[in-house]
Design brief:
Blueprint lengths: L3 H11 L10 H21 L5 H10 L8 H11 L6 H21 L4 H12 L2 H8 L2 H15 L5 H14 L3 H18 L2 H7 L3 E4 L2 E4 L2 H23 L19 H22 L7 H20 L6 H21 L5 H13 L4 H8 L2
Antiparallel strand pairs: 1-2
Helix pairs in contact: 1-2, 1-17, 2-6, 4-5, 4-9, 5-6, 5-7, 5-8, 6-15, 7-8, 7-15, 8-9, 8-10, 8-15, 11-14, 12-14, 13-16, 14-15
Length: 363
């Protein structure tokens, strides 16, 4: 039976359907405000579940969960604060950081647009999973996405945020290296700077303009990631992380092959919409960078499907995929019907995502 919180979650996402139509600021202000109130009710009243129960049990006993130095330091600070529900404080800190970062990255200045950013972030799968389940990965992914966005603007700052990200979850270095590798390979196929400006796969070779199709680039990336996945899988067997290959949780969980159906349908449909939108209007470079990153992660998820022993790693990549998609939504400029369809379909589909409903119903 569906819980109260799951019902409110679905209802709040259905309200986003109104964004299919072009409305004035007052209607958007009203809708965003209602959505924020409904979602905040969920976050403030939902009982602790999954990892939060483990963290709370340790903190209530005065014990620090000793894994990853950044998270250890944060627990130490919160542990010495004269407050109750210490794990909720940590979750709240993460939530505030995500919202503030989203507002800064979106560069919105008027109240209607800022409330829209907040509503979208609160309603994202990323925010729900980060604040209500995987706290360490939540902090790590937030600093990692900042690091990636800064990669082409300020490499020193990018490296600093990567170090902070790594201090909360050791998997950050895998994502960082993987993304740099992907950018390196793609820069050999097409001009990255031109892509960030046009979202088209173009390369100039001997004064000739070469333009590659989306399907061609997708196929090349899939081939590369298939090889990387194969080599990585067998390389892990000779490292200290080899035990993870046999660590597969299946109880009350969907398998990657089941999860990818929802992801694939959403990805393909929204990419078609964005391709059509790009013919009529332009998005900013941050949006283009995030879109390309989402493509890389989707292809990587496909390449890892044959390896059941990497199911846990697959789930971590999927979480980061949702992180990227959340920030993709808040950097999107709603300039035409295709943008509005992309926005509405993506955020509304979160309302029926099974992992979200599971967290909101598992007490």
């Amino acid at each position: 039976m569906i819980s109260e919180h799951a019902f409110i979650w679905i209802l709040s996402h259905l309200l986003f359907v109104i964004y299919i139509l072009k409305h004035g600021p007052y209607i958007r202000l009203l809708i965003n405000s209602i959505v924020i109130v409904l979602l905040l009710y969920i976050y403030f009243t939902k009982p602790l579940t999954y990892d939060l129960v483990v963290y709370n049990s340790a903190l209530e006993s005065g014990i620090i969960y000793e894994q990853d130095v950044g998270f250890i330091l944060l627990q130490y600070i919160v542990l010495h604060l004269p407050v109750e529900n210490k794990v909720s404080v940590i979750s709240g800190i993460l939530g505030i950081l995500i919202i503030v970062t989203a507002i800064l990255i979106s560069k919105q200045k008027n109240i209607v647009s800022i409330l829209q950013v907040i509503a979208v972030i609160l309603g994202s799968i990323y925010f729900l999973l980060a604040t209500q389940n995987v706290l360490r990965q939540g902090f790590s992914s937030l600093f990692l996405i900042i690091s990636i966005i800064l990669l082409f603007k300020n490499r020193l700052a990018s490296l600093l945020f990567f170090v902070i990200s790594y201090s909360f979850h050791a998997s950050a270095y895998i994502f960082y290296i993987l993304i740099i590798f992907a950018y390196f390979v793609q820069s050999r196929i097409f001009d990255l700077k031109l892509y960030f400006m046009t979202m088209k796969f173009i390369k100039y070779f001997r004064d000739k303009k070469l333009r590659f199709s989306y399907g061609f680039v997708f196929s090349i990336l899939l081939l590369i990631f298939v090889v990387v996945s194969f080599l990585g899988y067998h390389f892990i067997r000779y490292t200290k992380y080899s035990h993870y290959l046999d660590y597969v949780l299946t109880e009350n969980r969907l398998l990657p092959a089941q999860k990818i159906i929802f992801i694939a349908i959403s990805f393909i449909f929204t990419e078609i919409l964005l391709s059509k939108s790009n013919k009529y209007s332009k998005q900013n470079e941050t949006f283009a960078q995030l879109r390309l990153l989402r493509l890389n992660l989707f292809v990587f998820l496909l390449a890892l499907l044959p390896y059941s022993g990497l199911a846990e790693a697959w789930s971590r990549i999927l979480f980061f995929y949702f992180c990227i998609e959340a920030f993709l939504l808040i950097t999107l400029k709603l300039q035409n019907v295709y943008d509005r369809l992309f926005f509405t379909f993506t955020i509304t589909s979160y309302g029926i995502y099974l992992n979200a409903l599971s967290i909101l119903s598992y007490y």
